[in-house]
Design goal:
Elements: H1 2-16, E1 20-21, E2 31-39, E3 47-48, E4 55-60, E5 65-72, E6 75-88, E7 91-97, E8 113-120, E9 123-126, E10 135-139
Antiparallel strand pairs: 1-6, 2-3, 2-4, 2-10, 4-5, 5-6, 6-7, 7-8, 8-9, 9-10
Length: about 140
Amino acid sequence: MKHFTILIAFLSVFNSCSKDVVTTDNTGYYGKWTLVKMSGSIANSETTGSAMEWQEFYLFNSNGTFTKSRERNMIKATISGTYAATTDSDGMYLELTYPNDSEIIGNCYGNLKEVLYFTDKNNLSSTWKSCDGPGLEYKK
């Protein structure tokens, strides 16, 4: 329940900030972003490389589409969708929208969206960890 309350507070603040569409000349996020680190809610639970539970990447295209691919136990799953880039006082976010449900969509709500945020220019992180999902970090 405590995590749910924190999540609601986070989302209230997140949604109350004004959002501006990032112009298309900000191409820093186009290309392939590969999962490099996973972490859990337990201290010292980080894994990297082949020790991670799965391998995955996002490929962001300049036309507003993306592909997500995950390999787990030698089974590969791929799904594509659209994304929108926004900025607010906390930084830049990518909101991904999927056309249909898939087990590789990592979010808190069970809907067809994911939100990723830039921790810095070269690191992208999933918001899934805010609701007891794994912490997922990607590098270009």
